[in-house]
């Protein structure tokens, strides 16, 4: 097992708050927008979710690394978070199915982390002050030097990131002889979304972020389209908004998750905005207002659609509401086979309350 030295490390927030801890992962420096995830399990799925690209993740669970890492539990081909902040960083793991330790995993992929932080205090601070940029370093301990480096980090507001995490080549998932075909616009798609399609007898072809509707239609003649999750500001993605508008014009079924939800709203003249603190965790209660039932959902987003604009729109209707803060969690386009949700029905390891949305989409395709 790789040596873990517990050298000193520093976390500096954009508002000047400083935390001192121990080095974890690679020795180095990293920057990004700091956010926190309240999930009690599934840390590897979080690390590899492309929606977390350019973000420093604070884990609220006390132990990270205790069940190791497994090649089977990734949502993309690499770690996507910019860095990790945690309380207890466990290099010894207790699961037979694991392939290795978190320390080996982070060192292989050049991920800088900091441990031995009072994450409860840190999360309360972020919750009260809002999302902001941060820097972690285990090689530079001088706060003034870190402050000057942090000043150069761009704000997430206005940042287009999906083209940086999207596939560069098309690829397919599932049985090519399947009766149903879905074109997937990859803005940072998670592997478990694609598994949910193949499990339902759907043959999916995944396209780079800036592929147009016409290119997908001509190449694949799909039964419908899926607009994926992904990182960054949806308002900085006019190319994707145009693609969604063209899909809506075609009349073919469309389903969007997370960033895809925000883009469907923008395509219907509903603006988005950066949230004071995003939703990130496995326990967000959402009401399906169509079926009048509650779902426990997995969420990861720092932007949302403007509720007042959704309520005033004559183009869409609300299908889902967040019961914590009344934010809009789902919409469908009036007179079209097009709908979206802000949360993650494919969530792995769970909860699985919302998997029916894939069945609804498949029914539309048929």
Distance between the termini: 52 Å
Strand content is 25-35%
Query: Which CATH class of the largest domain?
Result: Alpha Beta
Any idea of the CATH topology of the largest domain? Answer: Rossmann fold
Based on the structure given, which CATH architecture of the largest domain is correct? 3-Layer(aba) Sandwich
Give the SSE string: EEEHEEEEHEHEHHEEHEHEHEHEEHEEEH
CATH superfamily of the largest domain: Class I glutamine amidotransferase (GATase) domain
* Count of individual helical segments: 11
Write down the domain tally: 2
Family: Belongs to the CarA family.
Protein name: Carbamoyl phosphate synthase small chain
Subunit structure: Composed of two chains; the small (or glutamine) chain promotes the hydrolysis of glutamine to ammonia, which is used by the large (or ammonia) chain to synthesize carbamoyl phosphate. Tetramer of heterodimers (alpha,beta)4.
Pathway: Pyrimidine metabolism; UMP biosynthesis via de novo pathway; (S)-dihydroorotate from bicarbonate: step 1/3; Amino-acid biosynthesis; L-arginine biosynthesis; carbamoyl phosphate from bicarbonate: step 1/1
Task: Please name the defining characteristics of this protein.
single chain, 2 domains, pyrimidine biosynthesis, Glucose Oxidase, domain 1, amino-acid biosynthesis, 366 residues, ligase, 7-stranded mixed barrel, alpha/beta, Rossmann fold, globular, 10-stranded mixed sheet
């Amino acid at each position: 097992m790789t040596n873990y030295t517990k050298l000193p490390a520093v976390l500096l927030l954009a508002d000047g708050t400083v935390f001192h801890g121990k080095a974890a992962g690679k020795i180095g420096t990293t920057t990004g927008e700091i956010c926190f995830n309240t999930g009690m399990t599934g840390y590897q799925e979080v690390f590899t979710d492309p929606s977390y690209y350019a973000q420093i993740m604070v884990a609220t669970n006390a132990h990270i690394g205790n069940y190791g890492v497994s090649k089977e539990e990734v949502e993309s081909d690499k770690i996507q978070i910019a860095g990790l902040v945690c309380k207890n960083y466990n290099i010894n793991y207790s699961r037979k199915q694991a392939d290795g330790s978190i320390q080996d995993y982070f060192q292989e992929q050049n991920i800088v982390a900091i441990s031995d932080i009072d994450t409860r205090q840190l999360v309360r601070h972020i919750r009260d002050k809002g999302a902001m940029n941060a820097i972690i370093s285990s090689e530079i301990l001088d706060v003034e030097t870190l402050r000057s480096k942090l000043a150069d980090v761009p704000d997430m507001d206005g940042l287009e990131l999906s083209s940086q995490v999207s596939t560069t080549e098309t690829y397919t998932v599932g049985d090519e002889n399947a009766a149903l075909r879905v074109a997937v616009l990859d803005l940072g798609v998670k592997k478990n979304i694609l598994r949910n399609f193949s499990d339902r007898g759907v043959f999916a072809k995944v396209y780079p972020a800036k592929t147009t509707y016409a290119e997908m239609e001509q190449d694949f003649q799909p039964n419908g389209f899926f607009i994926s999750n992904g990182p960054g500001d949806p308002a900085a993605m006019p190319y994707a908004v145009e693609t969604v508008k063209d899909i809506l014009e075609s009349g073919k079924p469309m389903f969007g998750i997370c960033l895809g939800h925000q883009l469907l709203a923008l395509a219907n003249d509903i603006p988005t905005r950066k949230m004071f603190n995003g939703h990130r965790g496995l326990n967000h209660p959402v009401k399906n207002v169509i079926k009048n039932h509650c779902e426990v959902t997995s969420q990861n987003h720092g932007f949302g659609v403007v509720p007042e604009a959704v309520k005033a729109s004559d183009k869409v209707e609300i299908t889902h509401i967040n019961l914590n803060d009344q934010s809009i969690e789902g919409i469908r386009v009036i007179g079209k086979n097009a709908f979206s949700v802000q949360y993650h029905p494919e969530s792995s390891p769970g909860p699985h309350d919302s998997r029916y949305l894939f069945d609804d989409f498949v029914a539309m395709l048929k």
